[in-house]
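Section 5.1 Outputs to date
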Amino acid sequence: MFLYSFTMMNDLTIESSTPTLDLADYLRRTEHELNLKRREDKFCMRREQLSELIQQLGALDFRLVVHKAEPFFYYNNTYFDTPDHRLYRWHRQGKFNRVQVRIREYLNRDTGYYLECKLKSKGKFSRKERIRLDELSDWRLPYARNFLSTHLKGFQIDPFELVPTIQTGYRRLTWVSDVWPAHYVRRPHSRA
């Protein structure tokens, strides 16, 4: 599964002819793939570049994931790190085989909270493991600590040393495809 995610800062109009995939269908289709390897690409660009890229993606078998006809997904995240910011430093250094630990809340879906370990391996591929939490504070409970112990084992990180470090909130569009057409997508405003 290949994902294109766009974090949105301003309003954007989505054409009614844009190919879509309902979130429920997407989740049913990918339920068994959730913890498998996947590639994610994230972009930061000007609005006019995004409009051009969206047109290209629609023509290349990418579909925009929607929920109740709403294309934007809203997220709140609480990221965890060690007191010496080891996980952040690994990210900034581009270390392969690193991990992110966060609690994510999907605001426009009533699904509660998820404690997630996002395992990043060589290249742009990642694997996400997660468990559902009823309350934000449940990350301190034994079942959550056991989950963290299992997934942090190879990183020499004790789950008891993790502390909430930063909170983020944003909205984004998510495009999915079963094929990776990178050689077909021309970067917006690039020279041919």
